[in-house]
Amino acid sequence: MDYNSFLTRDYKSLITPPREAKKPRWTRLHVLLLVAVILVAGTVLILVSGEAAASKSAVRTALKPDNSHNNQRVTIPLSFPALENNEASTTPAIDSELTWLTVKVKTGDALASIFNRYQLNPMDLHQIMSLGKITSTLKSLHPGQIFRFQLDKSGQLQALEYEINRLESLIVSRLPEGGFEARAVQHALDKRIGYSEGTINSSLFEAGKQAGMTDALIMELVGIFGWDIDFALDIRSGDHFSLLFEEQYLEGQKVKDGPIVAAEFTSQGRTYRAVRYTNAQGRSDYYSPDGHSMRKAFLRTPVDFRRISSRYGKRRHPTLNKLKMHKGVDYAAKRGTPIKAAGDGKISFQGRKGGYGRVVIIQHGGRYSTLYAHMYRFKKGKYVGKRVKQGQIIGYVGSSGRATGPHLHYEFRVNGTHRNPLTVKLPDAAPIQREYRQDFELKTRGLLSQLDMHTRTRVALNNN
Ligand SMILES: [Zn+2]
Fold it and tell me: Which domains does the chain have, with CATH numbers?
């Protein structure tokens, strides 16, 4: 990864306004020369594409640079020689023994119907499908996918190339001794580091979109800082974020953004920073620069809720109509919404309990326990004594017991005492282990100083 070139490039674009391209002054001689050049280039192009019909990649490389160089100027002159030479480009090259046939999968296509359509030997298909698991991907085709069949002079199938997706292809080739062999080919991704930043005016989502972030990248950012910042309640206009993320390229085309490798979020004057670290076991997680986990040992809310229908504290009980302490938080949600274990632990109770209805209690070590009430049903396989991981589903929202509508009643206890789940200070998940400490600092230092540089640039620009 070439971090330096990325930095200088982006740095410059921040300070220097984009230079306007000089408009060329056209003379008659220029125009004549241009037309002549284009005519020659066009003819060469057509010849090249005709001969190279046998090789898609050759056509690709031949066409790519020309397209990008000629811009809009090519369109008109190229159209008439192209028409004249149209036949030549569809006729297979004479001197080549093998030809490639490119087929786009149509709606409802199976490989058998494609074989039938192009009069390929069904015995070959049978042999290919008998190669086992590797060719089982050929059973479920999707419209728009591309097949390339290599045929010899007699039209017999020699090889087949199938783009499973942009990252993976299947190549099947005929063996000289008979039969076929298949292999999967992974296209290597080229990683670069991208940078985005934004200031929130109305919503994080809008600010992220303006910064050119994908939805997935915005959700990643929320996932990283969601432990410290409540994105539904805490976000204010003027809050700011910046992030470095991997950009994955395939043959020069961007395939995907992410994961985020370092990020900063300032909310209501408080700044949080996170950096991604992968340990020796290959497990990646986000940490503060001093090695504390960005995650907490407990989820703040164990359910995707529509609204908080009742908070912790004294209130008039909706069904008993008595002033009573409400020892948890009620999250209104649709019946059947999954309820997640707030933290790692062991199920200590599962069953019906008076007004609670169907309830689950999880014990998290010696100090903490959480309770989930009014469930519609329990998750299968999650019973008393079972270990659960943070975020695992333990049941579904309902209105069993004393409840006016479907909601999750959630309680949080520390040493047996009820605490407000919305405000209780949650313990951090495990920090960087001592043995990885040095490695952590070594691997994250560069990313953090890169983030620093961007932040400083921004501050400098704002002050000018
Ligand atoms: Zn409640």
Answer: 29-94 (no CATH), 99-186 (3.10.450.350), 307-419 (2.70.70.10)
